[in-house]
Design goal:
9-stranded mixed beta sheet; oxidoreductase; 27% strand; 9 helices; D-amino acid dehydrogenase; 413 residues; 6-stranded mixed beta sheet; alpha/beta
């Protein structure tokens, strides 16, 4: 009988977004000494300007036939919520072809079945963080989904029926009265119960503070260049700091995952789907999140303002901020809102959401012993970050299979 492998003592996590910090926190729950390295700072990638929805019922695979049709129709429309850069690299074209091949009803249902265990555990993982001392609140509130015509809700109803059939608790009702923040251009509203929202920036700051308070180190400005074997185990090399020694490494660097993970045998591409957001003024408080499917724009309460997040720009992850995308979001939602001051735009932001061609994240071990991956969550890195961290930390520290993570094998084709 062989003895169980000794759990790693020192773990380095690359990436200080929601996925990386949550993984670090749950690794500490198992007794690991954790160092988090980030190329910039806490939450500076795709997490900070996220809409802040904690909406597991909406966390479904991105590749699906309706989105593909919408994307093709909008290629030449500068105001389309789906936008392709006119200068696409060959790797991006290859990604889009693979994405299109997976945009079938059958593939979407398989992906939904894979995501459902994560979706079902998502909010409980946030509760564990709160019970463990992360001093930031999540807010219970339904999501209001607005449509410009009666009957336009059929697609959303069909999708949520599939989510319910897959095993989630989906409570959906139609509202008879349509009022603010919707204008009279909105003729039908669905109310999706059982969801939450959060201020991502505040939550990430609190999560980072808890990791530090429990003895973890977070090193900003530490862009990881390589992970190698060296004296005493793994060596994590950065461009500006001395190497970090580790018994295990988690790569949670979002859209920058391909460069680091390729040498560990991960071949599935990760493409940046750049999302834009900003805050706007309000005439009255917004009590719950709002979603406008036709514009693919989400609105979320943010103190006395509202965060407006939308667009999916397929472009280089490091491309400069494009103010035209913010203007396009404003034009797309202005006719449908009342009491939102879209002339008072502040905090414009862009972040590279990491997309995979099959719409499923990459979570688990690589071919390089001791090196693990956590990324590719697309638009749902905030919602699914804590449950990802919880499950991956268990896998890293026990070296035992975690059934919920099997569909997200980073080595899949």
């Amino acid at each position: 009988m062989h003895p169980s492998p000794r759990p790693p003592r020192r773990v380095v996590v690359a990436g200080a977004g929601m996925v990386g910090l949550a993984t670090a926190w749950f690794l500490q729950e198992h007794g690991a000494e954790v160092t988090v390295l980030d190329r910039s700072d806490v939450g500076a990638g795709a997490s900070w300007g996220n809409a802040g929805y904690l909406a597991p019922a909406m966390a479904v695979p991105l590749p699906e036939p309706a989105l593909l049709r919408e994307g093709l129709r909008g290629l030449l429309d500068p105001d389309s919520p789906l936008h392709l850069s006119p200068r696409l690299r060959p790797a991006t074209v290859a990604f889009l072809l693979r994405f299109a091949a997976r945009s079938t009803p059958r593939a979407w249902r398989r992906g939904l079945a894979a995501l459902t265990p994560l979706d079902r555990g998502a909010l409980a993982a946030f509760d564990e963080l709160a019970a463990g001392g992360v001093a930031a609140s999540t807010h219970d509130a339904p999501v209001l989904i607005g449509f410009s015509q009666q009957g336009d809700d059929a697609g959303v109803r069909h999708e949520l029926d599939a989510v319910r059939a897959a095993g989630q608790d989906v409570r959906l009702t139609a509202l008879a009265d349509v009022g603010p923040p919707f204008s009279d251009r909105i003729r039908a509203v669905l109310r999706l119960e059982g969801q939450r929202h959060v201020d991502p920036g505040r939550f990430l700051a609190a999560l980072a503070g808890s990791v530090r308070a429990r003895g973890g180190r977070i090193v900003a400005g530490a862009r990881v260049r390589a992970v190698r074997f060296g004296p005493g185990g793994l060596q994590v090399e950065t461009w500006a700091h001395p190497p970090e020694s580790a018994d295990a490494v988690v790569l949670a660097v979002g859209a920058w995952l391909p460069e680091l993970a390729r040498t560990a045998g991960v071949r599935l591409p990760v493409q940046a789907g750049r999302g834009y957001s900003f805050s706007a003024g309000l005439d009255r408080p917004l009590p719950q999140p709002v979603y406008l499917p036709a514009a693919r724009v989400a609105l979320t309460p943010l103190a006395d303002r509202v965060r407006v997040a939308g667009t999916m720009e397929i472009a280089d992850r490091d491309a400069p901020f494009d103010g035209r995308r913010v203007a396009a979001v404003v034009r797309s939602v202005a006719p449908y809102l009342r009491g939102v001051d879209l002339a008072d735009v502040r905090d414009p932001w862009v972040g590279p959401r990491p997309l995979t061609p099959d719409g499923l994240p990459l979570i688990g071990p690589t071919r390089m012993p001791g090196v693990h991956v956590a990324g590719g969550h697309g638009m749902w890195g905030v919602t699914l970050g804590p449950v990802t961290g919880k499950l991956l930390a268990r896998a890293v520290m026990t070296a035992e299979p975690v059934p919920e993570l099997a569909p997200f094998d980073p080595l899949r084709g």
